[in-house]
Amino acid sequence: MFHLDTEIAIRVTASGGAFQPSDGLEFYAEGLDNQYTGTDAYWLYWNGAEGKRIPSIDGGVSDGNTPITTFNMLLVFEENKQIWTDTPGAPETDYWFWEKLTGPESVQYDIFAPEPAADATGAELRVIFQGKAETADSPAYETTISLNGQALKTDTWTGNNTYTQTTAVPSDLLLPGTNTVKIDSAGASLDVIYINRIELTYPRRLTTSRGYLAFQVDSGEPKPIQISGFSQADIRIYDATAPEAVKRVANIDVAVNGSRYTAAFTHQNGGKTYIALTPDAMEKPDKMTRQPGTNLKDASKGADYILITASDMAAGLSKLTELRRRQGYRVETVGIEDIYNTFSFGRFDPAAIRDFLDYAYHNWQPPAPQFVLLAGDANIDYRDYIRTGRKNIVPVHLAATPELGLTPSDNWYAAVDGDDPVPDLYIGRIPGNTAETVRNIAYKLVRYETGDYTPKQALFVADDEEAVFETLNEELIEYLPGDFTEQRVYTRRYADLDQATSDILEFINAGMLLTNFMGHGDVTRWGAEPIGEGGEFILAPEDLDKLANPNRPTFVVALNCLNGYFAQSFKYSLAEEWVMAEDARAVACYAPSGLSLQWEHESLGRNLFSRIFTDKTNVIGKAATEAKLDTFYQGGTNKILTVFNLIGDPATRLAIFRDPANKVAAYTITANAGTGGSITPSGDIPVFENADEKFSAAPADGYKVADILVDGVSQGSSESYTFKNVTSDHQIQVEFQAAGSSGGGGGGGGGCFISTAVH
């Protein structure tokens, strides 16, 4: 058995040559608790070498020595309810906190201290704070710690840093069981401090009522140790000082003490960690799965286009990957689970994605990969502390930025060649927490690239606060081809912002190759300042619901702030909302996840339009990435690389400058089901020329298939139908009837069932 890359010792309990249901393996697992996960992975291999086994050491007790019956207990109390993304040193340092105190404020917590010794001399209470000083000369913080109603210590401290306040606890103040810790902040009205955690150390009796006790002993000479309180005589003790090489203590002395049992053994010397437990207290893994090997480190592999998603979402993206193959790319679909298993030993860890891409870039068969598509939701709250339920299907990397602190950034995954922030891959992502959502986005992308949609218009929207927003749009309009028509919505010219919003929607419905916005923004809106509440804004997600541009999606460029913050816990960003509609809104959105400098936006806009319309670079990811590289090399900050994210497939080809000789032909099969069941797949399904497509009908309980209609023609009551060698658009509809119905005509007074054809 292995943990990470280290083999660990195990104890096999088996009654024969093959495992039976009553057999098992025993091993010691420390547990895992980091910013990404609380779930660890252990790997069991068989049919090879015998492996390490847990040895026994002698713990026999000699008469006449007074046993050790107490130890120094460390308890840590922590809850993560508040995120401060601007915590100094984040994301490496802890940026989740228990409580935020502003100005003069008090808070109290109940902590549980089991079995304190009769003489708890030496107990110590610590509160770990994080200061949030606005300036270098911010006033000092003053914090007081009380325990069980008694004030113990007041500290005065300063700084935008971690501070640990430590106080001794009187031996008669610590109670067995529940104790109340109160924290008072006496700062000025705007002073902010965060409470991170509380730690308590105290002398504890070596006793347990739960059948389990972990404890440490530090003695330079052999000493007997006695542990009481067990409900079973079968008591096991392990030396877990070296977690990968635990030892079982043999020859322990078990004695009856009333209705309980006591175990005694001899500690030899040095500092040791022991685990004492009964079999019923032994934990079982939350999940056991058989993991086939992956081939991600097979250097014979090669790809131009890599799709990373959850295994249960991959099938829904197969049309998109087939499009890329037909466009000449070598395509590799990689399950995020395989990446974790290969590059982070099964642990959930965003770094595994970067390590995988680094490996593929440098070790797979050349040419190196160009495009990476991440498919599935991300959440800055990796462990869902605040219980929104938003999944981390393909996790986000959080990069530190000066103004906002931690910011979602996919650029880190793409910067794999050298120790710099320069991206070496064209990367993008599509959102979605279900297979259906990402499938529908994929279908939209396929229809966009295989269809005949060739818009000759572009829309330019400017916020009303500064004329410079309009000025930049006018500069960008100059890049458009001569046969293009520019449309403008400059909100400074509108007395009613609702009319501006209406005009934006009307123009997009008419079909815009590109929609460019220049102005202010927050996570979900155009025209809203990132700071402050209220005020007017231009566009929000609910406005996008009014769009009706099926199969005419636009490419949105948002030269504002925060629209691309794609990892919000509570909601989707506006960039994601643009892309998530099944057949409308946008094919992609290029937007920042952080706060940005106006001059950098101006430079990025010019470079992007130059790449698209002057250089005729119609591949979105290539144009977007090279534009921000141009901006960076022209004097832009690292932030321009970090915060601009592409929500969309980086290999998507805009509906301009396409070579007709390279067009991939596809058709649409529209699939619907009547009342009483469903058809799979359903909706508007893109099917490539000369390909087959199978549809399956699933009657609901109490129903059966009455008929399948293809282009209005009955195909009978089969539960499936396959289109062969598709060369045109089609329609398929399945009709259901109650299972007890005959479905035919009838005599006097009888009825008949009539299938309705699709026209």
Question: What would you report as the Rg, rounded to the nearest angstrom?
Answer: 32 Å
Q: How many helical stretches?
A: 12
Total number of domains: 5
C-alpha end-to-end distance: 63 Å
The strand count comes to 43
Query: Could you estimate the helical fraction of the residues in percent?
Result: 10-25%
Ranges with pLDDT <50 over ≥5 residues? Answer: 744-759
CATH topology of the largest domain: Rossmann fold
Please identify the structural class as seen in this structure.
Answer: alpha+beta
- Named at the architecture level, the CATH assignment of the largest domain is 3-Layer(aba) Sandwich
So what's the CATH class of the largest domain? Alpha Beta
Mean pLDDT across residues: 93
Biggest sheet, strands in spatial order?
31-30-32-33-34-35
